Amino acid sequence: MDDLGRTVSYLRLSITDHCNLRCLYCRPPEQVPYIPHDDILRYEELLVMVDLARELGIGKIRLTGGEPFLRRNFLFLVESILKRHPEVDLRLTTNGTLLPGKAKELKDLGVNNINVSLDSLYPKTFARVTGSDLYAAVRRGMDEVMAAGMRLKVNAVALRGINDGELAGFFEFIRHNPVDFRLIEFMPMGGQTMWSPEYYWSAPDILREAEELADLTVEKRAPGDSGPARMYRVDGSLGRFGVISALSDHFCHSCNRLRVTPDGNLRTCLFSDKQYRLRPILRHPRLGPEMVSRVMRLALRKKPLGYQILQQRKEAGAAIHGMMSAIGG
Ligand code: SAM
Fold first, then answer.
1. Is residue 16 in contact with ligand 1, taking CB distance under 6 Å?
2. What's the pLDDT tens digit per position in 190-217?
3. CA–CA separation, 145 and 164 (whole Å)
């Protein structure tokens, strides 16, 4: 438990900063150096991180990136984690481009929840946002995830002027598909991404516009669900609609998550620049996992309230320093 009484139960483990998409809102278009290969946590080290998370009582782990499926033998990592910790609720976040052909195997390994990021249901808009023509592959991957009986969440960054005309299409999509479709408020990240108020489509605006199109019923939170999404049931639909209001309505008081970057930096708050460099400790011959565990416990206790940091930065441009493609969303 941290000093504010929050129980941390969720680790987002970003396993690579490489991605095969160039989303306008994520990685700046100009060349940004990748993390040097030797600094990326090896699979054995990622397994140690999972062990330590388990010792802290963390039961839910999400593998993210960059694009996690770009990491060589990614399914082997998934298998190794679940063999070692079959009780872990292991989830994945992916852009879906490399999903086709893998859903059944993932399900057999014990993965039951996959989040796919998809900002548009129009191939042309998808190409505009991501710089890629892999829309059909993403849709195929999503279909296979549903066919394999896994829970699918679809995350779209809400972008005024880009996908704000698609609300009716999003509702049509959830009418026929048993997915949680969530619009995420566009967050101003460090680096030269395209964030500007003109693209910002706020959660209250989304909801106002959504209510004109569909009958929304607020979903009561399941016990233990402290996630950031506010979910709605929609009359006559197999799926649900949700909004993640990272900026307009913070959820710091129920935040239960830690993040570890591909190079082994622990971040206890998305909005804070403070990083605890775990890799040198993990690799130090006289320190190792035991000391990493101590640092994690200490860091966890001091987990900040992100909205206070956001407030301080309001006037200062980027709200979040560092890139999502490394932090993992
Ligand atoms: N490659 C994977 C994917 O596409 O889901 C995982 C990494 S990606 C950085 C994780 C999530 O962060 C995606 O849903 C993406 O849309 C979201 N994201 C990235 N930059 C964002 C921003 N500036 N504001 C809001 N969400 C963002």
1. no
2. 655 677 888 999 999 999 999 999 999 9
3. 26
Evaluate whether 72 touches 103 at the Cβ level (below 8 Å).
Answer: no
User: Token pair for residue 118?
Assistant: 């998809």
- Counting ligand 1 atoms within 8 A of each CB, the residue from 14, 24, 25 with the most, and so the one to mutate, is 25
pTM for the structure as a whole? 0.94
Q: Which domains are delineated in the chain?
A: 10-327 (3.20.20.70)
Query: Could you give the angle at which helices 135-147 and 123-130 cross, rounded to 10 degrees?
Result: 110
> For the residues 232-259, what does the mean pLDDT come to?
88
Amino acid at 226: S
* Amino acid letter for position 139: R
pLDDT band of 36, cuts 50, 70, 90: very high
**Residue 55 CA, ligand 1 centroid: distance in Å:** 28
Q: Are 232 and 242 in contact, with CB atoms under 8 Å apart?
A: yes
